[in-house]
Amino acid sequence: MKSICVYCGANYNGDPLLKAAVETLTQHLVNKGIRLVYGGGSVGVMGMLADEMLKRGGEVTGIIPQFLMDKEVGHTGLTEMIVTTNMHERKKKMADIADAFLILPGGFGTLEEFFEVLTWLQLGLHNKAIGVLNIAGFYDNLFAQMDVMVKQRYLKQTNRDLVFNEHEPEILLNKMMHFSAVPDEVWFKDRNLT
Hints:
disordered C terminus; alpha/beta; 17% strand
């Protein structure tokens, strides 16, 4: 794993636990020589994440659509900034150049990006690790909903298990670095989940 795409919020609620987790995460990424790929923003959790990486001497690639650069929310001090024409191109580029995906707290955009790459993994469109850094239980309700989906047979347990859910950055990264799974190749052939 030479690069990791981190999805996170363009807002930050001031939570010191989140800040501490980002500091720890970025130190582990730098120590392991892993490049950060993220949405290119200078604000919120995104900006804090990039700043912490850069402060520790890490490499950061930002990918941002032109309309957000025009709004002056793009980070100006990154190792590399890629400007795309739209959001779809941005997401594709992020997914293409990353070796894995990590999710931090965020809003609608973060969840949309998370579920897109998770669905792609389920469909066998990539075989890259996906991990959620579940700081202070931020995503507990989301994982509980996934369990409801399994219980009510809208989701197979094997596909539910494709995503790592951890509270500690080092544990999460170690699991992601050793990930190798082939998603259920017959999910579309056999819709009977009983």
